[in-house]
């Protein structure tokens, strides 16, 4: 069929129109059945079959239709595949973040409480050192690639790293004194701080349902503290600091990521480079803190470091630390600070249950009710954010 044939040219223009479906145009042509197949699979979101059908469509288009029509189908298919990638990205990154976060909290609780290890900064140093070594080995074998660490990039990233170090240290010390279930409920306070931070930094307002959910979280945290049978004021103080630093980390990281990209040669900064920056820059700060708090002497003399199982748990927590660094940066990149915070609220349910069962935490009926109330407040918060 000639390209000068007017009816066909009209079909091409009609196919390019955003108000016209592919199937409606294809019915007018001899290849209607092929395009109906593509349209059907697009509805079913079957990615692999679409590729096969697309190849068939291209061959048919080269014989029956003009190249412009084929390009229209290519554009539509690429747009649909990109849309699926954008939809599954936040889901996969969120699931990865939840699994890593849950496992990390439980393992840190084992190392700090079950083994009575009182050097949280030293543990953080060991975990981040493991992360740096693994990343360097992977880069050496060409598995991953990272941006070159320039002084300009480091200067921009130092504020994020300082907050990152503070977040890890305060989180470890709070776990030392507070049971896992109460830590997860008190972490709900981070949502309030993050929501307020988004208003002032990103000019992003919240609806009434979100604020109602945040109020419920405050009530559950206060009730949980009052009814906590293992209440420890030092632990609660560390957890309060941790909430401020966690909110500050998510807000600052989101802001600095865009600035840092402009300071790289490639004009981008992948997740691997961000994780390496965080872990590598935290080592000198951790060493300074270890000297200031005289942890090096305690870590050298404490008997528990001679227990092989202690090192198994400590190393496993280091590997999970690397996993949570990847997943948190990936998740923040795909969503935003408040979504990052609210998903952290939802994963408190399995953490709380596991913490109570694994560590034989004494709980009263009132305290258990406060924990359940706080968990449901987190779910309500998630629904409010999605409405």
Characterize the structure shown.
The protein has one domain (90-386). The chain has helices spanning 6-16, 22-26, 32-44, 47-64, 67-114, 120-140, 151-177, 180-186, 189-201, 208-227, 233-261, 271-292, 295-301, 308-334, 337-346, 348-358, 365-386. It is globular and about 55 Å long. Mean pLDDT is 74; it is low at 1-31 and 64-68. 41% of the residues are buried. By secondary structure, it is mainly alpha-helical. Helix 5 (67-114) packs parallel to helix 16 (348-358), helix 9 runs parallel beside helix 11 and helix 12 (271-292) crosses helix 14.
User: Which outline best applies?
Assistant: globular
Helical amount: over 70%
What count of helical segments does DSSP give? 17
Question: Which whole number gives the mean pLDDT?
Answer: 74
Supply Rg. Answer: 26 Å
Count of individual beta strands: 0
Summing up helix and strand content along with how strands pair, one would put the structural category as mainly alpha
Any chance you could write out the topology, listing elements then pairs?
Blueprint: H1 6-16, H2 22-26, H3 32-44, H4 47-64, H5 67-114, H6 120-140, H7 151-177, H8 180-186, H9 189-201, H10 208-227, H11 233-261, H12 271-292, H13 295-301, H14 308-334, H15 337-346, H16 348-358, H17 365-386
